[in-house]
Amino acid sequence: MLLVFIIVGVVPLYIFSYTLLNNYEEKALSNKYNQMQNQIIMLSNQMITTGYLTLADVPEIDSEVKRLAEFFQGRIVIVNNNLNIVEDTYGLYDSNKYLVSKEVIQCFEGNSSRVHDKENNYVVLTYPITHTTEEEKVIVGAVVMNSSTKDIQSILNGMEQRAIIFTLALAIFIVIFGIYFSMRLTKPLTDIVNSIDHLTEGFMEEGVSIKGYYEIERISDSFNKMINRMNKIESSRQEFVSNVSHELKTPITSIKVLAESLLMQEDAPVELYREFLVDISEEIERENKIINDLLSLVKLNKTSGDLNITSVNVNDLLEQILKRLGPIAKKQNIEIIYESFRPVMADVDEVKISLALTNLIENAIKYNVPDGWIRVSLNADHKYFYVKVADSGIGIPEDVQDLIFERFYRVDKARSRETGGTGLGLAITKSVVQMHRGAIKIYSQEGEGTTFNVRIPLNFIS
């Protein structure tokens, strides 16, 4: 960020300063050349009218030439059409000398020339002297005028110094501001990192509380939501371990008590043996159900590559499930209504889908009210098939609806224990649905019943 500030702040200023100085130099030199050219033109007119190029002895012209040379802090050399030097303000050449140079030759071809010597700080303008008549224009001589550019260079040096000072001042300000702003911006992030490190040490109950920018506060809030959810899941898991330990231990304890009671009675009648053995069998079945649910959940932890995909008639599958669960519903006088809107063939794992749908319908029976009802419907479109399981049961509180699909979670713990629930049924159902690239949603209101909507693709894509 500090680098960005420097690039955005200093680099454009440097480019602007460089462009400004170059433009000033070009403009100043252009003005210098224009002034020199204008003076040469006026001087040329005077020389033609007085015949100076042939006489070379006109005091007024000599004094004007010297004045211009002093004004431009340079040197003026005048040559005639024979390349003979007529005047040299430095007095280095007399009238017997000739000036032959590329620039002078170009003048007699009608072209002026400009030369800028940056190293020695002067410019040279070679300009033709033109005699204009009614018939034609004749070049009768040339003026070579040197002029010092020290004044321009002095101004440029002053401007460069100011630009450097201003750039350095701005750079220092940007660095200080960048450091301050970077620290201010990264401090909330550093606080979040410290809070996360604190959480990894086991202080999960404290959460993260960071005040700062809106986005930082959103990160803090989202992280706290995640921590709260993790705490709830961890709490439910710990509770499950306790419950499962109790559930697994209770049947074994009951079996042990029943067996010891029989062993203590040497002459116990056959009816008593039968009664105790029935109780032992029920406890073994209860133990077996808990173990099977745990094994099912472990198997579902594997990838979808373990699915045995076949083409299944979902209508027949639902009818088989309802037929199997019908006697359980009949015991509680619960009416099951099944609606099939169209024939549905889908590529699914029949065993796992059957397990998931069975769990939903069985839960609707277990957590229903006496003389209640269950409505199961099947529908499909060109891409998915939909199973809806609605009941008139006890419903699920809104504040725990996000947790019911978590493993080991049970809404009504006492009733779950009475019905043999382990808190794994809905976790198994959701795992099966997700393995088929589907989705499951719940709509429930406490005391008014629950509705589960399941959506599964007709064609499985791995």
From TrEMBL:
Limits of the HAMP domain: 183-235
Locations listed in the record: Membrane
GO CC terms in record: plasma membrane
PROSITE patterns named among the record's database cross-references: HAMP (PS50885), HIS_KIN (PS50109)
Occurrences of domain Histidine kinase (ranges): 243-460
Annotated keywords: Kinase, Membrane, Phosphoprotein, Transferase, Transmembrane, Transmembrane helix, Two-component regulatory system
Enzyme class: transferase
Enzyme Commission numbers on file: 2.7.13.3
Signal peptide: none
GO molecular function: phosphoprotein phosphatase activity; phosphorelay sensor kinase activity
Coiled-coil regions listed: none
Protein name: histidine kinase
Reactions catalysed: ATP + protein L-histidine = ADP + protein N-phospho-L-histidine
